[in-house]
What we know:
Layout: E1 7-8, H1 17-27, H2 33-54, E2 58-59, H3 71-76, E3 77-81, E4 91-93, E5 101-103, E6 110-117, H4 123-130, E7 136-137, E8 139-142, H5 163-183, E9 188-192, H6 202-212, H7 215-233, E10 237-242, H8 258-267, E11 272-276, E12 296-302, H9 312-322, E13 331-335, H10 350-368
Parallel strand pairs: 1-13, 2-7, 8-9, 9-10, 10-11, 11-12, 12-13
Antiparallel strand pairs: 3-6, 4-5
Helix pairs in contact: 1-2, 2-10, 5-7, 7-8, 9-10
Amino acid sequence: MGVSARAEHVGSLLRPPDLLEAREAHAAGRLDAAAFKAVEDRAVVEVLGLQHAAGCPVVTDGELRRESFQSEFTAAVDGVAGAGMGAWLWGDWHSAEVGDLHRERPAELAVVEPLRARRGMAVEEFAFLRGQTDRIAKVTLPSPSLFANLWSPERSTRAYPTLEGFLADVTAILCAEVRELTRLGCRYIQLDAPHYPLLVDPTWRAFYEARAGSAQRWLAQGIELDNTVIAAGRPATFGFHLCRGNQHSRWLVSGGYDPIAATVFGRIDADRLLLEYDDERSGGFEPLREVPEDTQVVLGLVGTKTPHDPTEDELAERVRQASRLIAPDRLAVGTQCGFATSLLGNAISPEDQHRKLSLMVGAAKRAFGSSRGSAAQ
């Protein structure tokens, strides 16, 4: 059996202050590795309790052990220079509350040597998580083509003459990761692909086209790599998350999924699509027509960027609107994105976070009569 839960959050959760303090102390050499791991473990147990209390049928470790949702790749693999926190923050970020923020791509960020995996990315996360919960334990991993920005025409060609060769090695490393996760008993893996919706924006489309040719060709090649990872991780269920940027309550682009829906929704071999649909920036539900009949859709209706919440009735009405395009037994209610894409976290409180998780579960019950569905562990 696969996963068919009717309520599901994307993955990341706010880091508690004591964990952030311990991370800083460990980096400064004031806290040894064993003591730091103990703090991490306690923090994961606490966020699991939060998810259990909210009634979440699918739980994660909140990505609490990571600097950013994609940072474990470069933390676990040799060959990349300049992969500090700035590597995950660059771009033209926007926010209605605090205005726009432009960050340049770090000049030193590049793959400079052939990649070599030193350790797993998420196996430690899952090994601990599976022993702490009887609910569906989800592990999140980045889409391989997300790391195209690590390949630099100026600095990377000695190690990888082509971007395609670099991404082939990235994909191989992720394939090995999902095989090991599956061997350890993981039954639900999510690939995060926030870079695909960036193609609705002309500036970002030009960035990727400069490296890989046409946008549609780039998109099709990326989906092919994603499907390679998914095939390597079977029989696990796979989710696939698409959003428009999420960093400290900021976002990168606006626009509906329409330009990419046929390629992404139609060709990805994932079982569940987790889509951003919390406000007008997400566009309408019409692209859901492109979702194959054997694929479920988690409507990301609950925003994670601000304290504002709709009502359960409003969320249930939006589910009814979507069900005009896709059968209601294939729908679920979710969050628009994670609560803490990186250490920074979004500009909401822990109380806001708990309320939103509870709202998500309550809205699923209101819309479907249950938040759980059926699931395999």
